[in-house]
Design brief:
globular; about 90 residues; GIY-YIG endonuclease; single chain; alpha+beta; 3 helices
């Protein structure tokens, strides 16, 4: 199974959008670890939305689609109106 997911950091007041083939809990732990990169060193990321997809290509396509929105309000609307999709 593959996942498209959205994280939120309250300290940054920002979203992070990604996809993974790993378990979401494992991936979240990596984001919250002290590593280089956008999500590293904060430790307060939470999963606010996710979708399951059958293939990596579908999960990655969904990630690209949402990133193209470039709209915080549209991402918040996705999270608020649909919750988590399994």
């Amino acid at each position: 199974m593959f996942y498209f997911y959205t994280l939120y950091s309250s300290s940054l007041d920002k979203f992070y959008i990604g996809h993974t083939s790993d378990l979401l809990a494992n991936r979240l732990a990596k984001h919250n670890s002290n590593h280089k990169g956008f999500t590293g060193g904060r430790g307060d990321w939470i999963i606010v939305y996710h979708e399951k997809h059958e293939t990596k290509n579908l999960a990655y396509a969904r990630e690209r689609e949402v990133k193209k929105w470039k709209s915080r309000s549209r991402i918040q609307k996705l999270i608020n109106t649909t919750g988590t999709v399994d």
